[in-house]
Structure prediction request, 234 residues.
Amino acid sequence: MAEEAQLTADSCAKALTAFIGNGKSLLDLAEKESREGSLQAFIRQKIRIEQKQSLLGLIDAGAALYKRAVTLQKYLGKGKKILLVLIRQFSCLLCRLHLKDLEKNKRSLDAHSVEVVVISFGCQEGASHWLQETSCQYDMLLDPDRKVRGQHQMYSAFGLGASLKKVLNFGNMLRYAEYVADNLEFPRGLASIQDDMFQLGGDFVLDEHGRVLFSHCCQSPIDRPSVEDILSAQ
Prediction:
């Protein structure tokens, strides 16, 4: 418990430091640019939410603060089961299809008091792009150091490794070819971020106290448990 409290405090401190740094950079830039043109031009350019370097960029900085401060502790102790869906790279088509299947079965999951949380080891930029592309309705926790749970690495703690053979074997290549024949488009990763295409994913159901009730370590990108298997967790 002490370790979890320390982790949360450290995470909040890092998030707050990043927020202050981002805010100062935006304000310094705004002060500089305010001296270089008219007030009207400055307002038009700096008070625009679509401009990442506008003063409203503080909204994104604040959102990042809240997201980084969130841990699994938020979801425990509420009388619900938590389904952790550990995804592979952001451009994994099979992960997206699996989450779409879970969304289609929302009524059944709700009836069994199962709350879905997506876990990614990727960065904030990749997560924002992924959420925009997928319109995923579930919360996502970012774990760039793969250390969401205390001092343990989330992926390795659940036995999830990386494997070229399991990702790019002949059987998977044929399955991918079927998806292409069915006109399914494979997502493209962002050139500006580094991802791990060989990382394997998994699904894990926890009770409200954090005990593991169901464990499925994917043996390949196409290996995901059915909703029925997930709902069987006791």
